[in-house]
Amino acid sequence: MSGERGEDENRPEKWRPGKKLYESCEPFAHAAKVALQMIVGIGTVLCLIWRVGAAMDFLPQPFFATAKPLQIVAMGLEYAAGVELAFMLFTDGPDEAVQPLILGLAAAALLAISTGVSADAIEPIAIVAAPVFAITIGFLLWIRDIFIAPQPDDETGGNG
Fold first, then answer.
1. Model-level pTM?
2. CA angle 89, 91, 95 (to 5 degrees)
């Protein structure tokens, strides 16, 4: 009887049906996340280069000719945040959710600022949104640093 009780005490750590599945899928999901985020990054940079080339009359006007550079970067960050959130579905635990929230808020901040600023005036939304987003992003960074344990392969983690 006492042997069974000892096994029951260890059961929550040992008996987790999805743990092995998460452990086997996570490396592939991480590789896919990195590849997709690099594609998003390269696409964002290419859009910016094309936009500059079109402004200098070296390239034809792209379909996104009316988008401001910060809007293009905001769209890239939105896609990167989406990829990061999708990756979270393949990991064991919710600690990966903070980084995509930070990316998404940064994208929203860039979008609000870039659409609220024109040659004539600054819209009130840009004046209010910038500090609100900055404070929120700072709060999320604080949460990440305080409450989410560093990974063993991080520079801040491990021994030494």
1. 0.66
2. 95
